Amino acid sequence: AAMSRKGVKLLVDSLTRSAKHFNKSEVECLVNLFDTLVARASSQFAGAGFDRTVFRDTLHSAFGMTDDVVLDRVFSTFDKGNSGCITVVEWVEGLAVLLRGTLEEKMKYCFAVYDLNGDGYISREEMFQMLKNSLLIQPADEEPDEGIKDLVEIALKKMASTYLLVPFLLQDYDHDGKLSFEDFEQAVREENLLLEAFGPCLPDIK
């Protein structure tokens, strides 16, 4: 349903405060874009938001994101209400982190993308699944899965070599190669390049 001019102003003011990283005119543009995307979406959400397909198409065209697994996970991190659609608040606040988030915000976002089952850990299996989907495998590779398994072990060892992670790996029998957010955070603070260790889930600077 069309929102009154006063309603739009109140919404923009509220989102400018909550999204933090966008100014008022930027929020207005994102709200207008949201309305355009809702018009493209299926009618099942009664104008409240847009669906997974529209979201994926938008991220693909705007940021060149093509990995289906990553796009599904990004959708889930935006869809905080778990409603199956992206509301205007989820849209603006999600983009604020995706495009201009602090390192802390981006670490939480990337961890949520990689934590496929939402249990608070990134397991070996989840690392394998993310890397398998994001890496380009040559047809000539005889055992591509073995190479990915090796990469998972390298990533675990790299993260385990940073402060406080050695005890974590020594207890690997209990944790079965799982990384908690604290493990991931410490590793990324030591080496920022590990932020997207298990697949590209942020737009590049361009």
TrEMBL record:
<feature type="domain" description="EF-hand">
    <location>
        <begin position="66"/>
        <end position="101"/>
    </location>
</feature>
<keyword id="KW-0106">Calcium</keyword>
<keyword id="KW-0677">Repeat</keyword>
<dbReference type="InterPro" id="IPR011992">
    <property type="entry name" value="EF-hand-dom_pair"/>
</dbReference>
<feature type="domain" description="EF-hand">
    <location>
        <begin position="168"/>
        <end position="194"/>
    </location>
</feature>
<protein>
    <submittedName>
        <fullName>EFCB1 protein</fullName>
    </submittedName>
</protein>
<dbReference type="GO" id="GO:0005509">
    <property type="term" value="F:calcium ion binding"/>
</dbReference>
<dbReference type="Pfam" id="PF13499">
    <property type="entry name" value="EF-hand_7"/>
</dbReference>
<dbReference type="InterPro" id="IPR028846">
    <property type="entry name" value="Recoverin"/>
</dbReference>
<dbReference type="InterPro" id="IPR002048">
    <property type="entry name" value="EF_hand_dom"/>
</dbReference>
<dbReference type="InterPro" id="IPR018247">
    <property type="entry name" value="EF_Hand_1_Ca_BS"/>
</dbReference>
<feature type="domain" description="EF-hand">
    <location>
        <begin position="102"/>
        <end position="137"/>
    </location>
</feature>
<keyword id="KW-0479">Metal-binding</keyword>
